[in-house]
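Progress against Task 2.4 (sequence-to-structure conversion) is shown through the following example record, which the project officer requested during the mid-term review.
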Amino acid sequence: GVIPTTRPVRANVTATIGGLPATVTFAGLVGPGVYQINIRVPDLLNGDYEVVVTADGTTAQRNAFITVQRSAAASGEPQPPPDSEPPAPYSAGQKRTGQR
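C-alpha cells generated for the chain above:
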C-alpha cells in the first residue's frame, strides 16, 4: 500500500496573528516528528506580529513572530497600468511639460 506523506492532526487547532483570528488551512504530521501548520494571515498593516497557536486548548510556545510586508497593490497605493513604460529619466533642474 501507499503510505501517506502527510497526516492531519485530529486536534482542534486555532491561531491568532497580532490578536486577530487566522484561518488554519492545514495542521498535521509531515515527517517523522515534524508537524506543520499552514495559516492564512489576516489583513494587517506592515509590522511584526505575535503568532499564537492553540491545539485542544493548549497554547504552543509563545514569542513566535511574523513580519507582514504588504505589496504596493495590496496596500491600495496607485499602480501604473500593466503596459505603461516608466517615465524617461531627467536631470535636476530640467522641466517637463504636461506633468505636474
